[in-house]
User: Fold this.
Amino acid sequence: MNAPLNAPHPQPARTGGKIMLVGLGPGSHDHLTARARAAIAEADTIIGYVTYIRLVADLLEGKEVIKKSMTEELDRAIESLERARQGKKVALISSGDAGVYGMAGPTFEVLFQAGWTPDSDIEVEIIPGASALNTCAALVGAPLTHDFCAISLSDLLTPWPTIARGLDAVAYADFVVALYNPKSGRRTRQVLEAQRIFLRHRDPQTPVAVVKSAFRPKQRIEFTTLEKMGEAEIGMLSTVLIGNSNTYVRDGL
Assistant:
């Protein structure tokens, strides 16, 4: 008897390794999902930026650990593919969510360039985690209740004019905005330029929250306004939440 037309095709057994793109969430073990924890336990090899490795160091005993620097995203993805080709199970870790300014994009670029398809011997699993805008919002109240967007101020891979155009559009459209990667040691002007763009369209008293290292030991929360945002303590580990015309602060939330 023939199988029904809509019957699922049996999946061929995979003989290669596995790449698990693991989102760690904000970094505290309390906010690590059960699947993320299980993936790390399952992995033979852990690959990640040194800070992310440090967040889960106590879960890595007996595993091969490969640490990379901040700007070596493609190297991390290439290393993961090489280990998976050797039959290893690899956990490639990102803070937050691997698909939000994380390692999912660079990894798929490397995989597709290498001729990988979903039917290949190497299995790929994306394990979601809470991103910075979720975790930071949870600490300050309910700023994302309605429409919002995220914009990274890092112009390492995106030209600044493109970022500025996006900032102007969302400022005009009255979205609540989460600014990722707002500032670094070498990048200081972008967050001030973002403030200037928003002031074209929004009340100077618009509430702003700056959250550094959410749910980590050095967590710091600062409430300010759009007008005074440039005076706030903002760094690479900060996320900046800019309210819209309906955002208000009450009782410290």
Remarks:
- The longest strand covers residues 18-23.
- The chain has a mean pLDDT of 92.
- The radius of gyration is 21 Å.
